Amino acid sequence: MKKRSYIQKNNGQALLTAVAVIGSIMLSIITIAGYLSVKRIQVSRSIVNSSAAIMQADAGVERAINKIINEEYFLRDPFPTTLDEGGVNIKRIPALSSCGGGPGYKIISRATEQGSTRAIELSLCE
User: Fold this and answer.
1) How far apart are CA 32 and CA 30, in angstroms?
2) 72 class by beta-carbon count within 10 Å (0-12 exposed, 13-18 middle, 19+ buried)
3) Where are the domains of the chain?
């Protein structure tokens, strides 16, 4: 009777171990690639939502400027010092530092789009 050596008895284990290691490495690579893809999609959505919020805030500033210039709401005496409507806050300030100490308006417009909030602040001199 021939004796089988230790190496001959364990011949298939090396192949099985190699396949398991290669499979684990491939699974790790696929998992990391999937995670990075999901993060890229989330960043893309965040950029879209942020852009939409900025556009909405900008529209609010334009609406406030239109209200100041074209409507006589702020030109009446005594004028209101604050108007707050629809995420837009307009304050008439008698001595605004950015206007050289003269009268002006401070406009703050905030907008939120699916969890992304953006604000624009503008000083407008009379």
Assistant:
1) 6
2) exposed
3) 6-125
Structure confidence at residue 101 as a pLDDT band (50, 70, 90): confident
Spatial distance between the Cα atoms of 46 and 57, rounded to a whole number of angstroms: 16
The pLDDT score that the predictor gives to residue 72 is 59
Q: What is the pLDDT of residue 94?
A: 76
Global confidence as pTM? 0.62
Residue recorded with tokens 């407008």: 124
For position 29, what pLDDT does the model report?
96
Q: What is the 3-state secondary structure (H, E, C) of the chain?
A: CCCCCHHHHCHHHHHHHHHHHHHHHHHHHHHHHHHHHHHHHHHHHHHHHHHHHHHHHHHHHHHHHHHHHHCCCCCCCCCCCEEEECCEEEEEECCCHHHCCCCEEEEEEEEEECCEEEEEEEEEEC
Instruction: Calculate mean pLDDT across residues 59-66.
Output: 85
Residue 23 structure tokens: 């499979």
